[in-house]
Design brief:
binds pyridoxal-5'-phosphate; globular; Aspartate Aminotransferase, domain 1; 393 residues; 5-stranded mixed β-sheet; 13 helices; 15% strand; alpha/beta; Aspartate Aminotransferase, domain 2; 7-stranded mixed β-sheet; 2 domains
């Protein structure tokens, strides 16, 4: 991976920023190197009738500020705002819209996002067209006078479609639309969409950025002052903020993000190569494989791929897929991704169970699809686990 394989170069000093940035803010009490966990939810006001001040912890928290400043640096944006979950960060972006607005969303998308768009946003008068955003030329025909936002993931959940982010940003900006990209599957170490012209970059911090399966958090990054001001207002007044302790946990986790991502990446490729050549596997999707239809596009936008794979068993039904999953011993059957442990799940029954059948069909979410995430275990053990499970079906 990295530059010599045709990928974008890894960002300069990223690893150093992860380690050293959290010495801020400068404190006078002692010279500790970790950010303090500040739990106070009240703030002492300097003087009655004085200038306006921060009046409570929901509006500003020092531990949260350290984390947000760090994430903004890693995402190469001016600002980052954290929320109580990834879906909370996504909801904050949708809250930028008002009643009567319309947005375009890719048809392959995380089931929680499509559920929010289909079951919540219409209550606020916001409607969505689900379309194929990989087909850049067709996008203008779906843009309406009230369209305000283009939303996608890169790569997508669960079938790892790759978007042309520069192309999308050109279309969006020609039509004066905001472009938002969910970067969860790669983390800022492997892809920084803001550098490619994306206005709003979302990450479910719960996944790779925290990486230890013990925090739920989301973040929105932007360099646009007006969007930051509105998102900040939404963060403060909808109040879906993360707790100081969780902010501290993520500050600590980010110190190891680059080394964790390198391991996820190498194991993901090795398992994908093994499965791709197995007679009981129909197809494996991993954008780092030359067999992926958008491999070259992917390399031009990212520094590498994570441990996310979409694996299609050959000609099997739901029962056989269940049997395979139940036979795996190391891969935990669970939703989520990006932690230290390897996971498997069937999108059609779990992460995308409420996705309308029409969208499932278009996206290729079928009964023989297993979403796989490789963790940090020994790769030979992970391959051996699949080998013994495949022998059982
Ligand atoms: C791509 C993507 N975005 C957002 C989310 C939501 O994140 P959270 O669980 O932190 O709310 C998920 C959850 O699986 C996801 O896969």
């Amino acid at each position: 991976m990295g530059e010599k394989h045709g990928y974008l170069p890894f960002p300069k000093s990223f690893k150093t920023i992860c380690i050293h940035h959290t010495k801020e803010p400068k404190r006078e009490t002692c010279k500790e190197t970790m950010a303090p966990i500040v739990t106070s939810n009240i703030c002492r006001l300097e003087s009655a009738g004085g200038p306006s001040q921060v009046i409570k912890g929901r509006l500003l928290n020092p531990t949260r500020s350290v984390l947000e400043n760090l994430i903004a640096k890693l995402c190469k944006t001016k600002y980052a705002l954290t929320y109580a979950s990834g879906i909370g960060a996504i909801a904050a972006v949708f809250s930028l819209l008002k009643s009567g607005d319309h947005l375009l969303c890719n048809d392959d998308i995380y089931g929680g996002t499509s559920k929010t768009l289909i079951q919540v946003c219409p209550n606020f008068g916001i409607c969505t067209s689900f379309i194929d955003l990989t087909d850049l030329k067709s996008i203008p025909e779906y843009i309406r006078p009230n369209t305000k936002l283009i939303w996608t993931e890169n790569p997508t959940n669960p079938t790892l479609e790759v978007m042309d982010l520069c192309g999308l940003s050109k279309v969006a900006h020609e039509h004066k639309l905001m472009l938002a990209v969910d970067n969860t599957f790669l983390s800022p170490y492997l892809q920084r969409p803001a550098e490619l012209g994306v206005d709003l970059v979302v990450n479910s911090v719960t996944k790779y950025m925290n990486g230890h399966s013990d925090v739920i958090m989301g973040v929105v990054c932007t360099s646009r002052d007006n969007l930051y001001e509105r998102l900040k207002f939404i963060q403060q007044h909808f109040g879906h903020i993360p707790a100081p302790f969780d902010c501290y946990q993520v500050i600590r986790s980010l110190k190891t993000l680059p080394i964790r991502m390198m391991r996820h990446m190498s194991s993901g490729i090795k398992l994908a190569q093994y499965l791709e050549n197995h007679p009981k596997i129909e197809k494996v999707l991993n954008p780092a494989l030359p067999s992926h239809p958008q491999h070259d596009l992917f390399k031009s936008q990212a520094c590498g791929h994570s441990g996310m794979l979409a694996v299609y068993l050959k000609g099997t039904d739901l029962d056989t897929t269940h049997k395979l999953i139940d036979s795996l011993k190391l891969f935990v059957h669970a939703v989520s991704l990006g932690g230290y442990e390897s996971l498997v799940q069937m999108p059609t029954l779990l992460s995308h169970r409420d996705t309308p059948d029409k969208l499932k069909k278009i996206s290729g979410i079928t009964d023989n699809l297993i979403r796989v995430t490789t963790g940090l275990e020994n790769i030979d053990d992970l391959i051996a686990d699949w080998e013994q499970a495949l022998d059982k079906i």
